Amino acid sequence: MVLGKDDMFDTFLSQRGHRTESERVGWEKDYNKKQCPECGGLHDSSATECSVCGWTPYEPS
Ligand SMILES: [Zn+2]
């Protein structure tokens, strides 16, 4: 299932200069929201995992 391929997401990428996708281990920041780097889903800043695709950020302990 592919989500987040809408115009808003394309605009978001182009504004960022479409960085090279390498090892992205943290949330993308979008205003006061967190954005999942995997599916582009937006979540509250309190989110600890993506409720859309189940992605979780890598957190070194
Ligand atoms: Zn996700």
UniProtKB/TrEMBL annotation:
InterPro entries: HVO_0416-like. It comes from the Archaea. This is HVO_0416 family zinc finger protein. It comes from Halocatena marina.
